[in-house]
Amino acid sequence: MAAQNATTEPSSKAPIMEMKNITLRFGGVTAIENISFDIREGEVRAIIGPNGAGKSSMLNVINGFYHPQEGEIWFRGAQRQSSRPHEIAKQGVARTFQNIALFKGMSTLDNIMSGRLNKMNSNMLAQAVWWGPARNEEIRHREAVEKVIDFLEIQHIRKTPVGRLPYGLQKRVELGRALAAEPKMLLLDEPMAGMNVEEKEDMSRFILDVNNEFGTTIVLIEHDMSVVMDISDRVVVLDYGKKIGDGNPDEVRSDQAVIDAYLGVSHDD
Amino acid sequence: MFYRESGDFKTKYVDDNQTFPIKLDRLGYYAIIAIAFLVVPFVINDYWANAVMVPFLILSIAAIGLNILIGYCGQVSLGTGGFMAVGAYACYKLMTSFPEMSIFFCVLISGGITALVGVLFGLPSLRIKGFYLAVATLAAQFFLVWLFNKVPWFYNYSASGQINAPERAVFDFLVTGPNATAASKYLFCLVFVFILAWIARNLTRGRVGRSWMAIRDMDIAAEIIGVNPLKTKLSAFAVSSFFIGIAGALFFSVYLGAVEVGEAFGITQSFLVLFMVIIGGLGSIFGSFAGAAFLVLMPVFLKNVMVGGLGWPTDIAAHLEFVIVGGLIVFFLIVEPHGLAQLWRLAKEKLRLWPFPH
After folding, report:
1. Which of A36, A54, A112, B355 is the most buried if burial means most Cβ atoms within 10 Å?
2. Residue A30's beta-bridge partner residues?
3. What are the phi and psi torsion angles at A48 (to 5°)?
4. With 60 as the cut, is the pLDDT of residue B1 above it?
5. Taking CB atoms and an 8 Å cutoff, what residues of chain B touch A106?
6. Is A89 within 8 Å of chain B by CB?
7. C-alpha atoms less than 13 angstroms from C-alpha of A72 in its C-beta half-sphere
8. Per-residue pLDDT tens over the stretch B43-68
9. Low-confidence ranges of chain A (pLDDT < 70)
10. For residue B155, with 0-12 CB atoms within 10 Å meaning exposed, 13-18 middle and 19 or more buried, which class applies?
11. How far is CA A4 from CA A1, A10, A235, B150, in A?
12. C-alpha A62 chain-centroid distance
């Protein structure tokens, strides 16, 4: 189904982001070595690879948490200067984390509302008085957040502190927080780690819905190969900080280097 | 049975966002406000004002201020006493330099000046966290007290090194100086408490509050969703210091009248306010009041019981008071580490279901 998508969708769409010859080092360790790839507008782009391949580092480079020593990043037609993560968030990049990074002391609603912080701008004085601009702003954003809550089917836990929620729901709230920012590009770091089959199916459905309904470009790191092959349009494969494969799921699946490095060398014969 | 949400339908987001979503809470809040403004001023006497109500109100402001910094934004500070001293000395200089200016504005501007100083000492928070930040703010505490002792300009070159509050009136009622009446002092402080608590609630419920809490709960994630850590932390320091500065100005001008900086605003003052915040409950405005009430009322109560009720000598009572208050603090923290506010929350939770067990 998704493979079909990949072939039928126009591959001529302009890239929303281009990574050119990225190299990232931590002291003597080279986490990412001379990697180039592009992310097209509106596609689901998966990054896969064995543990320690540099996938999360790559995501951290994309949202500005790490600054690569070499290489260029082009986002929406402009080369990115070295910017802080909160500036990149304002440009329309949102993400979820491998280990849930929700704000534990806040309710579901507040967590998702916090996803809209970079769209809110009433000043301190208005906030202190509350009546007027601050309250109107709050209500306006609350409406947008309620749409996200409806979309993710988490109405019943709106007022629950997120610390009390089960794992699968916490992951969903985290996705909600990212969606509330109405990102152009959404980075998902292992959104299905530790989930059971039903939760994985739910999450896959949400990811595809986001992609279809809002046209959000999705960059996905995931270890579950069946999910990756099913929902992604194109896959980039990393191993030891190097790129060893790039293409649609079928190409990647039949690529010998990828099979050797990631899916395992066959020992049957 | 009457304390519940059911039947109280919210059809607008405005209703859903109100501070007290349950009707009984709302009524209780209005009742307390009405009693505080309309009844207490007529029955209050000098003893109650000076020993209980005025210090309680002023320290509540300081506790709310510190709670904004520690409880909402997660930045530990031990500099409260120093910042209160800034408020006090700013107020003194304003009162003596501009005798015509209303005391109300003197106190407000003192808060503003303290906010600036707070931002300055908040700068290290951008690089250091937790206990290390606490130590850095401790430096602020000692530096500020030293400064006000060393530079005679701050105390107008008076021979004693003390500062004394001149008499000032609001609408012809004296609020500072030895001739101020209990009711006017009390009301003056109450107005500040009312306004500042309302502001604190407004700030913590919207954009600013969420940024603070995001930084508190997970600073990396906060930055990645678009919170600017620099602005957020410094705004917390500014608002917190504004509150603490006002508390310091009132503490000096209305409550003490004469201040020697090391005595009134030393490290013990910092710890006192910190304990109020921790015992009351981090991240709760109600908790700030509860903590302040606990630490102001408990010693007075114990003293009255031991000296007045049992007739023990005052020195033994004074020592026992420390032991008992200390013991109670430990007890409360073991029973409920999240403070009195959490106890109150649990009680309300139970009340909501009463008389049914589940």
Report:
1. A112
2. A25
3. -125, 170
4. no
5. 210, 213-214, 217
6. yes
7. 7
8. 888 888 888 899 999 999 999 999 99
9. 1-12, 262-269
10. buried
11. 5, 12, 14, 79
12. 10
**pLDDT tens per residue, range A31-82:** 898 999 999 999 999 998 888 888 889 999 998 888 999 888 988 888 888 7
Q: Is B138 within a domain?
A: yes
Across the interface, whether the CB atoms of B13 and A143 are under 8 A apart is answered yes
Report which residue type is found at B14: V
B235 at interface of A, judged by CB pairs closer than 8 A:
yes
| Mean per-residue pLDDT of chain B | 87
Other CB atoms closer than 10 Å to residue A203's CB: what's the count?
Answer: 22
For residue B64, give its domain range.
Answer: 31-266
Q: Which residue has the tokens 């607008």?
A: B12
The angle subtended at Cα B320 by Cα B317 and Cα B322, nearest 5°, is 115
Q: A33: which 2 tokens?
A: 């070595």
- Contact of A56 with A241, CB cutoff 8 Å: no
Give domain limits for chain A.
1-92+185-269, 102-182
The complex's ipTM?
Answer: 0.85
Domains: count for chain B: 1
Q: Which of A106, A113, A181 sits opposite B217 (nearest CB)?
A: A106
Inform me whether the pLDDT recorded for B190 exceeds 90.
Answer: yes
With respect to residue B3, please indicate whether it lies within any of the assigned structural domains.
no
Contact with chain A for residue B159, Cβ under 8 A = no
Length of chain A in terms of residues written: 269
> In the prediction, which pLDDT does B112 show?
95
pLDDT at position A5 is 46
Tokens of A220: 């996905």
- pLDDT, average across residues B4-16: 70
A161: left (phi over 0), alpha (psi -120 to 50) or beta: beta
pLDDT at position A2 is 43
- Chain B neighbors of A139, CB-CB under 8 A: 13-14, 17
Beta carbons within 8 Å of B129's beta carbon, 6+ residues apart: none
Q: Is the peptide bond before B357 cis (omega within 30 degrees of 0)?
A: no
Strand partners, A245: A237
A151: exposed, middle or buried (Cβ count in 10 Å: 0-12, 13-18, 19+): middle
Helix locations, chain A, DSSP H: 2-8, 55-62, 85-90, 108-114, 124-129, 133-151, 167-180, 197-214, 225-231, 249-254, 256-258
Q: Which residue among A104, A110, A178 places its CB closest to the CB of B210?
A: A110
At residue B38 the predicted structure's pLDDT band, cuts being 50, 70 and 90, is confident
| Residue B208 placed within a domain | yes
Query: What pLDDT is recorded for position B251?
Result: 93
Contacts of A134 in chain B (CB under 8 A): 202, 206-207
B157 DSSP assignment = T
User: Could you tell me which residues are beta bridge partners of residue A23?
Assistant: A70
Does residue B93 fall inside a structural domain? yes
**Cβ atoms < 10 Å from Cβ of A27:** 5
The pLDDT mean for chain A works out to 85
Q: Note whether B252 and B90 are within 8 A (CB).
A: no
Q: Are B291 and B274 in contact (CB under 8 A)?
A: no
What DSSP character marks residue B242?
H
CA distance B307 to B316: 9
The topology under which CATH files domain A1-92+185-269 is Rossmann fold (3.40.50)
Say what the pLDDT of residue B317 is: 83
pLDDT score of B2: 60
